[in-house]
Amino acid sequence: MPDSAPPHAVATLIDRIRTVVGDRGLLTDPIDTESAAEDWRRLFKGRTQAVVRPGTTEELAAVVRLCAAAGVPMVAQGGNTSMVGGAVPNEDGSELVISTARLNRVRALDPIDMTMTIEAGVTLKAAQNAALEKDCMLPLSISSEGSAQIGGVLAVNAGGNNTVRYGNARDLVLGLEVVLPDGTIWNGLRKLRKDNTGYCLRQLFVGSEGTLGIITAAVLKLVPRSREIAVAFCSVPSAAAALDLFARVQAHDAAAISAFELMSGLGTDLVLRHIPNAVLPLAEPAPFYVLVELATPRPNAGLRASLETVLEAALAEGVVVDAAIAESDAQRAAIWRLREEHSEAQKREGASVKNDVSVPVSKVPAFIDEATAACEKLIPGVRAVPFGHMGDGNIHFNLVQPIGGDPRWFLDQDHPIMDTVNEVVRKYDGSFSAEHGIGKLKPYMMPEWRGGAELDLMRRIKDAIDPRGLMNPGKVLP
Amino acid sequence: MPDSAPPHAVATLIDRIRTVVGDRGLLTDPIDTESAAEDWRRLFKGRTQAVVRPGTTEELAAVVRLCAAAGVPMVAQGGNTSMVGGAVPNEDGSELVISTARLNRVRALDPIDMTMTIEAGVTLKAAQNAALEKDCMLPLSISSEGSAQIGGVLAVNAGGNNTVRYGNARDLVLGLEVVLPDGTIWNGLRKLRKDNTGYCLRQLFVGSEGTLGIITAAVLKLVPRSREIAVAFCSVPSAAAALDLFARVQAHDAAAISAFELMSGLGTDLVLRHIPNAVLPLAEPAPFYVLVELATPRPNAGLRASLETVLEAALAEGVVVDAAIAESDAQRAAIWRLREEHSEAQKREGASVKNDVSVPVSKVPAFIDEATAACEKLIPGVRAVPFGHMGDGNIHFNLVQPIGGDPRWFLDQDHPIMDTVNEVVRKYDGSFSAEHGIGKLKPYMMPEWRGGAELDLMRRIKDAIDPRGLMNPGKVLP
Question: N or C: which end of chain A has fewer CB atoms below 10 A?
Answer without folding.
Answer: N
